[in-house]
Design goal:
single chain; alpha/beta; 40% helix; binds 3-methyl-2-oxobutanoic acid
Length: 292
């Protein structure tokens, strides 16, 4: 990152001056900075975020105008085939972050800090986040609320932009509450307190995962930083989906909050079967696929 990139990413040098074309306006695009996300919120423009773990999807989503790409620790499942996000390591995440960061011209790239790489102390969080920033991330994401405010503060004061993650937090829910809607009834207050603590600590946005729509709406209204919903209703400032769910690469059961926009898994499966059939039938390669 150059100095001016760094300043702009952190929203400090040009804050309040530079504007970006409204999301999806078709006007020339500039690299998305954190202050643009705040502008989207101010203008009431909902914006999308997708996960990405490799160069092709990063390039495709970047060109499609997705302003924020998350190299999520969901890579544990989608890339590495683990059953949960717990086992994935910094060493397994870093190559994915490098691939995505190298492949975008426009999107802000957020890297998830994996389980066990930041919880112990603000110093540990700073050490890990620094590795991700050196490998091309523009920001990092970590799970947890007020308990992690000091961690967020340590990163932000070192110039590392931080996205929070509240509600259902897969890294800490194993064996505790399971996969269920958070912040219902009395619990809505806790969510708001956690979100405020993250904002005060300097987080630039907060993901709300599987949170009741009314609680997410309240948090979105109360915070000056953007919220990004996943299973959190229509009132968040942005919406995020795991790309393999969104595009139907995984043909298995998807959570209720996922909308499938394609059936990429079926398409790939049909392509692989056709290729196999052609090879068996001697139809591939044809003369036009060879050299004299
Ligand atoms: O790891 C991930 O993909 C995430 C999203 C679900 C927000 O954290």
């Amino acid at each position: 990152m150059t100095m001016s990139d760094t300043e702009n990413t952190r929203g400090s040098a040009t804050e309040g001056q530079e504007t970006t074309a409204p999301y999806g306006s078709g006007q020339p695009r500039r690299r998305v900075r954190i202050h643009h996300l705040r502008e989207y919120k101010r203008r009431g423009e909902a914006w999308p975020m997708l996960t990405s773990y490799d160069t092709y999807t990063a390039r495709i989503f970047d060109r499609a105008g997705i302003p924020v790409l998350l190299v999520g620790d969901s890579a544990a499942n989608t890339v590495y085939g683990y059953e949960s996000s717990l086992p994935i390591t910094v060493e397994e995440m870093l190559p994915l972050v490098r691939a995505v960061a190298r492949s975008v011209e426009y999107a802000l790239v957020v890297a998830d800090l994996p389980f066990g790489s930041y919880q112990a102390s603000p110093e540990e969080a700073l050490h890990t986040a620094t590795r991700f920033m050196k490998d091309g991330a523009h920001a990092v994401k970590l799970e947890g609320g007020a308990r992690y405010a000091a961690h967020v503060e340590a990163l932000v004061s070192a110039g590392i932009p931080v996205m929070g993650h509240l509600g259902f937090t897969p890294q800490s829910e194993h064996g505790l509450g399971g996969y269920r809607v958070q912040a219902r009834g009395e619990r809505a207050r806790e969510l708001l307190d956690d979100a405020r603590a993250l904002q005060e600590a300097g987080a630039f946005a907060v993901v709300l995962e599987m949170v009741s729509a009314s609680a997410a709406k309240r948090v979105t209204e109360e915070l000056s930083i953007p919220t990004v919903g996943i299973g959190a209703g229509p009132d968040c400032d942005g919406q995020v989906l795991v790309w393999t769910d969104m595009a139907g690469l995984d043909t298995g059961h998807a959570p209720r909050f996922v909308k499938r926009y394609a059936e990429v898994g079926e398409t790939l499966s049909r392509a692989a079967s056709s290729f196999a059939e052609d090879v068996r039938d001697g139809k591939f390669p044809a003369p036009e696929h060879g050299f004299e």
